[in-house]
Amino acid sequence: MTVPALHSIGTQQQLSVLVAEPDPAVAADLTDGLSVLGAEVTTCSNGAEALLRTGLTHPDVVLISTDLPGVPVAAAVRAIREQRVAAVIAGMGANDDSILMNDLLAAGVSAIVARPYRMPELTPLLAGIRPNPTPGEGLLHSGSLSVDLRSYEATIGGQKVQLTVRELELLAYLIRNTESVVTSGQIMAAVWGRPRSTTNTLVVHIRRLRVKLGDDLRNPRIIRTVRGLGYRLVAPDDAPAGTTSATSPSTRETTSSRIRRISSIGLPAGSSIAQSR
After folding, report:
1. What is the average pLDDT across 147-166?
2. Distance, CA of 151 to CA of 165 (rounded, Å)
3. Which one has a higher pLDDT value, 257 or 11?
4. Radius of gyration of the chain from its Cα atoms, rounded to whole angstroms
5. Is pLDDT above 50 for 2?
6. Which pairs from 205-212 meet CB under 8 Å and 24+ separation?
7. Are 271 and 263 in contact (CB under 8 A)?
8. Which are the contacts of 159, defined by CB distance < 8 A and separation ≥ 6?
């Protein structure tokens, strides 16, 4: 079932949401609430159908219940993320345990919210999501550095660079703000959906980006550190000599580098999650 949007959420482009919910009454309430906000909503009631509809329609967001039958929810999330969906939000019930939550995080959920769903909680999450690029959109350039958000590919000096999804999203954000200083909090809010972090997540990802772009770790020329503030991307003229290509075995993502996504149960109003493209 598809509901026409009244107005867009956060952008001029209509946001498409797949609601994977086994309870028809809950699905109907979500459809009504999301469509009023401007989303195009499609529903399904089991895991197999959720995977099928994701592959056929490529929604921007999948809102998936942990009670969804047919496919283990963590496996479903993992398969959905492989379709480059911008965000996967999991709804956990009061009886779900921390083991399931950890499995969902490892599978790549963007956020975890408590069920029953509350629109004041979902609205700020959706407001932070950008719809998937339409044909002709999604190409970002900064000097010899390019990111294609449709194919999730990055190049520097015409040479492909193998990046994880999160690394590419981070690079895309920096390119959008070329030559501007962006604070660590701004980056964390835009890419991870949280303005503060107790870990060195951002530092680690910046270092990995520098290595893969062939930047000098001791004296970075592309992604520069602005002490006390954050980072500034300077448009490169050509590919540095140390660029790590997509075919290099040294850049193959290992299990230890799996992206951990945002976890939030009972987020306060005003929280948002990162743009996924």
Report:
1. 87
2. 11
3. 11
4. 19
5. no
6. 205/166, 205/167, 205/170, 206/170, 206/231, 208/167, 209/163, 209/167, 209/170, 209/171, 211/242, 211/244, 212/161, 212/162, 212/163, 212/167, 212/243, 212/244, 212/251
7. no
8. 239, 243, 245
- Is residue 51 helix, strand or coil? helix
Does the pLDDT value for residue 68 go beyond 90? yes
State the Cα–Cα distance between residues 72 and 61, nearest whole angstrom.
Answer: 19
Per-residue tokens: 164: 């994880």
pLDDT tens column, 20-48:
999 999 999 999 999 988 889 999 999 99
Amino acid identity of residue 144, one-letter, is S
Q: Which two tokens stand for residue 170?
A: 């981070």
Q: Tell me: the pLDDT tens digits for 138-151?
A: 688 999 999 987 77
Give me the domains of the chain, ranges plus CATH numbers.
16-127 (3.40.50.2300), 139-253 (1.10.10.10)
